[in-house]
Amino acid sequence: MKSIEKLVIATHNPGKLKEIQDLLAPLGIECVSAAELGLPEPEEIGNTFIDNADLKAREAADLSGLPALADDSGLAVDALHGLPGIFSARWAEDEDGVRDFGRAMERVWREVEAAGEDAGHDAHFACALSLAWPDDGQVQSFEGRVDGTLVWPPRGDKGFGYDPMFVPNGYDQTFGEFDPEAKHRISHRADAFRKLVATLG
């Protein structure tokens, strides 16, 4: 594995950027976001989390000339056959592209309720990380997952996205109630990062 001094984080999501920066902090790598560099957000046309993470990482590496790390992640609900999945962010968007995860959580819960009591409330967060290099086009990908259940109404104002309605297995708090450091130890993103860091080490 080549050494990395400066890394582009291929995201325009401030919550996701903060989590990734926190997880990378022990490595001493300087991070700059795609938004800071004025890079566009590519259209996520992949069929899987890894597909989308790969295309975001490749584009950021190509445009910046720096190694780039992209994350694609989302909530997969058993009662909804894995949805919203790769469409997690899009479920939060209105016709103008403005994201409101309060609205997205309401949609998830409404559709879970419509699926019936037997469908249950099981869900998991999935994360794919892709690390792309600008010179040779090499990409490495890593996947992480955390299982849990959905609750309503949402609880907590920490985290972001669907965190306030997701309780990880073995805990009583939603990710929206977790302290960031505690979430970093058990989240889907942390799981994927452990695999990434092991490779970088």
Automatic annotation (TrEMBL):
Gene3D superfamilies (alphabetical) = 3.90.950.10
**Residues in the active site?**
72
Describe cofactor binding as the record notes it.
Binds 1 Mg(2+) ion per subunit.
Reactions the enzyme catalyzes: ITP + H2O = IMP + diphosphate + H(+); dITP + H2O = dIMP + diphosphate + H(+); XTP + H2O = XMP + diphosphate + H(+)
Function comment:
Pyrophosphatase that catalyzes the hydrolysis of nucleoside triphosphates to their monophosphate derivatives, with a high preference for the non-canonical purine nucleotides XTP (xanthosine triphosphate), dITP (deoxyinosine triphosphate) and ITP. Seems to function as a house-cleaning enzyme that removes non-canonical purine nucleotides from the nucleotide pool, thus preventing their incorporation into DNA/RNA and avoiding chromosomal lesions.
Essential cofactor(s): Mg(2+)
Kindly give the Pfam families that the UniProt entry links to this protein.
Answer: Ham1p_like
Which residues of this UniProt protein bind substrate?
11-16, 73, 160-163, 183, 188-189
Sorted UniProt keywords: Hydrolase, Magnesium, Metal-binding, Nucleotide metabolism, Nucleotide-binding
Tell me which domain of life the UniProt entry assigns to the organism this sequence originates from.
Bacteria
Q: What is the lineage of its organism?
A: Bacteria, Pseudomonadati, Pseudomonadota, Alphaproteobacteria, Sphingomonadales
Residues involved in Mg(2+) binding: 43, 72
Q: What is this protein called?
A: dITP/XTP pyrophosphatase
Q: Give the multimer and partner information.
A: Homodimer.
Task: Give EC number(s), comma-separated.
Answer: 3.6.1.66
Protein family per UniProt? Belongs to the HAM1 NTPase family.
Q: Which CDD domains match?
A: HAM1
